[in-house]
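User: Sequence for Orotidine 5'-phosphate decarboxylase below. Tokens please.
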Amino acid sequence: MNDPASKLIVALDYPSPAEALVFVDSLEGACRWFKIGLELYCAGGYGLIGTLRERGFEVFLDLKLHDIPNTVAGAVRSLATSGASLLTIHAAGGEAMMRAAAEAATQPGAPRLLAVTVLTSMDAAALEAIGVASSPAEQVARLAHLAVNSGIDGLVCSSAEVEALRATLPPATLLVTPGIRPAGAAIGDQRRIATPSSAIAAGSSMLVVGRPITQALDPAAAARLILDEIAST
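Assistant: Structure tokens for Orotidine 5'-phosphate decarboxylase:
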């Protein structure tokens, strides 16, 4: 994954496929990967994934599946025909759920699985409020190792934990990092953030960037600046 375009995922945080595709066109082919989250998937479903794939793009389907093992495994099997290359599940679903998902993902066409550990919008106070006494770093490490030992391909984790995870997990583990903000960009609702270069240097495999590109006056130029920063790392 030495090509910078293989390391940048642009979040299509739009309520409708039409708006998302207008934005995709505005990037003028600068980016290869796009993230479809729950809101947009509910609006566009397989149709939008198919359109992006027909245009030569890769899709990261961020649904954060979290249910009983049989239900999650069934969802993974259903999504094997969607065309998505990456799919998220919640590590908090536990070992049995993740093992069932990993087994379902062995069928042809199934996406590679990423486990979400601790959402980047959550800090120590937010974790404590839901009964987790561990720090974000401790909770991420616990769930990350559980996920990898359960057969999951990689993790979604903040830049704050990437370096430690990269040092302790198998080298092939994908580490996908949201909460990326170029220097000077607004933080928004993210708590654990990093610049593109610092995240890559820490060991991130891929970066998820939303508002710094989607809300830029010139999205294509903003994307190219981030790609240049990745390339220089």
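The longest helix spans residues 38-54.
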